[in-house]
Amino acid sequence: MPRTSIPVTSGTVYWFRSFTRLHVGIETFIALMIAKSVMAIPVLMSAYGEVALYLWTLLILPVKHGDGQSELSFDVGIKVHRRLRIMTKLQEDIAQDFITSCLHHFYCVIGCTLGLYVTLTQFVNSVEISFLVIAIGFVGILTLGLTESATFSFIALGAKASKEFIARNKQMNLRDKYQRKVIASLLPNSINLEVLSSLDTLRNGIDMKYFLNFLDRVADLTITILLQE
């Protein structure tokens, strides 16, 4: 039997290429959305832990009599504080297992360094300044900087509230020997989302001074890259 060939025209090639691009684009979009959702799960879990720690610590803060607010008993406050301590350890273990939340500092430092480097090179080395590149670099620096600032802020709020809980209990229970011993054994609760922890973070938690370390690292890396050119 004679073979029949399908005539290939420019229109057929155009539609075939368009269909291929559309098919690949849809599959890529779905894959990226799935990857984004998977990466968002540990981030949301860590954010929930930070907010829960802060709000529950505010709930158990001892208040002075006569201001119209209810006060939890000493035993209840200590129990809740210790349960929150267990919750923080679970949150840290989960974050280290998923590793995504623990790498927030690495991602933000690298992203801000690249954004700052690209922005500065536009003013230093470029003959023609591209405002689009400057805008992209500025938006990247602003977004990642605010993300890192918000992360440390929520963690620091929980640690600060926990320190306030211990300090108020010390002031209000100076005469009871047993309560003083219990309070002396307490450590402030804080969720450490870093890969490595130090003795200072274990004893005092995370505060906003770690955000200054973030700024120092971004500046040092950017200066180092610029000097190597």
Would you mind describing this structure in some detail?
The protein has 229 residues and is an all-alpha fold. The chain has one domain (18-57, 73-228). It is 76% helix and 0% strand. It is built from 7 helices and no strands. The chain has helices spanning 10-60, 74-98, 104-124, 131-172, 177-184, 199-204, 209-228. The longest helix has 51 residues, at 10-60. It is elongated and about 90 Å long. The chain crosses the membrane at residues 29-56, 106-125, 131-159. Keywords: Membrane, Transmembrane, Transmembrane helix.
Brief account:
Helix content is 76%, strand content 0%. It has 229 residues and is mainly α.
Helix percent band: over 70%
What is the rounded Rg?
27 Å
Structure class: mainly alpha
List unreliable stretches of 5+ residues.
66-70
Shape: elongated
Query: Helical segment tally?
Result: 7
Our measurement of the CA-to-CA distance between the termini, rounded to an integer number of angstroms, reads 70 Å
Q: Major β-sheet, in short?
A: none
Beta-strand content: under 5%
Number of strands: 0
Indicate the mean pLDDT.
Answer: 81
- Helix and strand succession? HHHHHHH
Overall tally of domains: 1
